Amino acid sequence: MLAESNPAMSPVGHPPSSPDPIKPVLLWPAIAFLAVYWMAHLIVPRLETFYFVGFLFNLASSVLLAIFFTTWWWTNRRIPLRLRLYGFLLIVGGGMIVEPFCDESVGWWGLLMSGLPVVLTVWVLWMIVAKKTCPSWQWRGSVAVVALTLAYFTLLRVDGLDSNLRADTHWRWDPSAENLFLEEKSHSANHTAATRAGEIVALRPGDWPEFRGPNRDGVVHGVTIATDWETRPPELLWRHRVGPAWSSVIVVGGRLYTQEQRSEQEAVVCYDAETGEELWAHADAARFWESVSGAGPRATPTFAAGRIYALGGTGILNCLDAATGKRQWARDIAAEAGTRPPQWGYSGSPLVTDGLVIVFAGGDGDQNLLAFRADTGQPAWAARAGGSSYSSPQLTTLAGVPQCLILSDQGITAVNPATGKVFWKGGTAMPGGPRSVQPHTVGPTQLLVGTYDGASVTLLDVSRDGDRWSAVPRWTSKDLKPEFPDFVLHRGHAYGFDVSMFCCIDLATGKRCWKGGRYGRGQVVQLANQELLLVMSESGEAVLLAADPNQHRELGRFRALDGKTWNHPVIAHSRLYARNAEELACYDLAPAPAR
Question: Are residues 324 and 357 in the same domain?
């Protein structure tokens, strides 16, 4: 590819056999399109766009760029046909040669989404600079520029993307957070502390036994904290590296449980909640990884009756003794459902109720929502409930009837938790859509559901007439548009993330009360004994907010973690437990002053 050439010039730059000049290539179409491309990539990430929309924008813009350049190059009659062929092969062939030498995190996908725009931009800049040089130098320079730019991508590693799809890029030889953790662990003496024989782990008041708390609603009960973080900030009790995962933590009986990726092993890990010391780890030979979120499990363990139930990113469902980590039984839910793990891994935390453990497996068959005997692991029932979901099964009672809810790409499905019989279904189908949030019970017959009808929240009136069920939307609001950050309810209002900005809506009407606070795609919990919300921002800051429907009020903030933080925070026994894909920390929240 070159800015101007002689039709008689050979591809290796030999002197032309004919002195007939040709007109220079018009570069302005390529320059204009590249300018539009980079301007769009500068502006769009700063807009309040959905994560999935941003993903589609990046993909579409890269594909359109490739199509435009291919069309422009092949229809450019000022360039001899043989040089058009050589130029095309230079880009495509260069990519094919370089790709096997790229890190797994780059690969073909990274070369298309990031590499191609950079290569084409550098090449056009070279054509502008070399426009007045002889054709042979233009050609040789083009080869060198393209080769060196493509080679640059073999030196990079991408440790995932943030919620604005910005890549966390490092030199390939720099140790990753996982490498640093594994190296640190290999040099530590006594990998695990001794567990006492016959020890029983039991639930205590104030414990946090499952994903988003006892009711999976993100509400903290029985805790009051000091709100003046300027004079008395939360005190760091311990902090250490962990293996990558987007699991949250649970706190039971003075112990903390979570999941981690440890090289080629997926681990359920138990720590001492007081000291952060590792007590035990159960590992399976499994590794889930994808380029956006990186490696590791996604789901949070569940505690019930002295056991830990944990679902790994590839679909391994473990039942472990909570005191020792000894495996009681295990199932491969992907195999049970005859499917493969979803694009971003299994993320739904197991639900344990009435002697059953319920998990979402997905797939194209009829066995999407599965129940196993909690004591033996034997199958109990299966229900059809959609092909993919990143939400967790939710136990609730509506119209006086206990039911298990699951929000999937086919909408919301309510089943009898004892038998799997489907009570009712509702919502707009979003085939392959990444539905992630939990449904919330508002009253005896009302349910607030995120993404029920696309990018919105919907309040449903659920009623029963004999064996017939009805779920009718009372209102649908686009004033709160949750993605994977969840929301909480407090005194007739919902507080959560409208894309990446925090907001409050009125549950009576669905109308927005206020919107303010840019915390990225973070997570939130609500302190029921106070008018307080604690937000963990995407950047790792803990932010204390007033649960005030009249205005957005920040009461305090501090940096709890470093790095991208998508994991849900936990407050138990007046302590904040925060983790991300790199570290786990515990902070003491001072009690509220006596009045």
Answer: yes
